[in-house]
Structures are given as C-alpha cells and as structure tokens.
Design goal:
The protein is mostly helical and about 260 residues long. It folds into 2 domains: about 140 residues, no CATH class; about 70 residues, no CATH class. Helix content is about 70%, strand content about 0%. It has 9 helices and no strands. The longest helix is centred in the middle third of the chain and has 64 residues. It is rod-shaped. The two termini are about 55 Å apart.
C-alpha cells in the first residue's frame, strides 16, 4: 500500500478484535501523575461527545412515525442519509474544536518568547528552543486529533454498517417479491398491462389454448385454477377483453416471442 495515500493507521495485531475506545479509567484512583494527560484527554473527549453529539428528543409525531416505519430499502436509505448528515455535522464540530486547540498553541508559543531581549543570539537561541518544544507539542496534538477522529468514525461505522446490511437484505427481499408478483397470473386487463413481456405472453397463450393445453401450462408455470379463473371469466364474458388478449397473443407471434 502506498504510504503517501494511506490516511488510516493500521491497528496493532494484539488489539485485533478489540474496541480500543473503551474507557481506560473507570475509577479516579486509577489516575496517576504518569497517565494524567491521557485521563484529561479522555475527559475532554467525553465532554465533546456529550455536548456535540446530543440529539433532540423526538416529538410524539416523530416517535409515531418511527413505530410505523417500514423496514424497506427506501426507509433504510433515509436512515443512512440522516446518519451521514449527522456525522458530517459532528466532524465540523470536531474540526472546530481541534482548530481552537491549535490556535491556543500558537498563542502560547508567541507569548512564551521574550520579545524584550536586546541580544540577538540569546533571543534566537530561546526562539529555537521554544520552536522545538512546540513542534513536539503539536506532534502530540496531531496524534490526539487523529484519535478523536478515529473514535468518531468508529461510532459512525457502528451505526452505518448494520444499516447498510439491513438495506441490502431489504433490497434483496423486495426484488424477490417483485419477481414473484411479475410471475403471478394477471387478475385483470390492467394487471396484464403491468406485467413483463414474458408473463404477458404466458397468460395470452393460456387464454387462447384448448383445455388440455391449459392443464399443461398450469403445471409448467405453477399456476392454480383459482389464480387464473378471474381472467378466464373476463376473457369469456367480455368480447372486447377477448379481442384484446387475442390481439396481444398475435402481436407476440409477429414479434417472434412465442415459444
């Protein structure tokens, strides 16, 4: 992998399958002078998520709509889009927070310099020492910013991945149901018009066939008499309907679709 284009740090093998964002400090007594900076960062990160990832309590209409929501592909698409918008908003707030820290670091660096020094060599020596100090500090800031981003991204993906899988399953089920409906024998002329060409042809062939041929077609396509009877009645009683289906069958023959 090209390291110049890699933006996500790979996890250490010993951490594979573990959630690296679980709290490390469950009790104040666990905090020591050595891990105090990490504890403070955890507290700051917690306060950020508590403040900026809060969501408004839905009103009654919204809760009712959620209860009545269909778990179909369109619904999951809306949920995913809403989640993406919320994630982008959270990223904006996170970047603002990081920018404030960076600005404070620059201000501290500037304030640390002794601008009253009259000796250029001493001033330059102090300036370079301060630059080195704050370069190290900003390297730690970058690691901290990346950790914050990864935690936010982890939270986002924990919600996005299940929604994506649910959407995929819903789409597959809807496609299966659609194909089943398409293969079903039409119940009216309007239903006939809505069917795909292959189903129209099968129905037209059935209606113009003799009884023996109809029995074979029932077995071939898995139809039952109760399914085909409504359209048979229309075909027998409605002269215009009979002419319509016969014309449709002739059209299929002329188009070379009959098999």
């Amino acid at each position: 992998m090209n390291t110049e284009t890699q933006t996500i740090r790979l996890p250490r093998p010993e951490y594979k399958g573990q959630n690296g964002f679980l709290p490390q400090f469950m009790d104040p007594e666990q905090i020591t002078d050595q891990n105090l900076p990490d504890a403070l960062e955890r507290q700051l990160r917690f306060e950020f998520f508590l403040e900026h990832q809060k969501r408004d309590v839905p009103d009654f209409e919204a809760m009712e709509a959620e209860v009545d929501r269909k778990d179909d592909e369109a619904s999951f698409n809306r949920q995913i889009e809403s989640l993406k918008i919320s994630h982008y908003e959270d990223l904006d707030k996170l970047y603002d927070m990081n920018m404030e820290e960076y600005a404070e670091s620059l201000q501290e660096q500037y304030s640390t310099r002794d601008h009253t020094s009259q000796q250029q060599e001493i001033y330059e020596e102090e300036r370079m020492a301060i630059v080195d100090l704050y370069e190290t500090e900003r390297a730690r800031l970058q690691i901290r910013w990346h950790d914050r981003f990864e935690q936010l991204r982890h939270s986002y993906l924990q919600q996005l991945v299940p929604l994506g899988e649910a959407r995929k399953n819903a789409a597959a089920e809807e496609e299966r149901q659609r194909k089943l409906l398409e293969k079903m024998f039409p119940q009216s002329k309007e239903d006939f018009d809505s069917k795909p060409t292959e189903t129209k042809l099968r129905a037209a062939r059935f209606l113009v066939a003799d009884p023996a041929r109809q029995e074979r077609l029932l077995n071939d396509y898995g139809w039952a008499w109760r399914q085909v009877q409504p359209l048979i009645d229309i075909f027998k009683k409605d002269v215009s309907g009979r002419n319509f289906f016969q014309a449709s069958f002739l059209t299929f023959l002329l188009d070379g679709l009959c098999f």
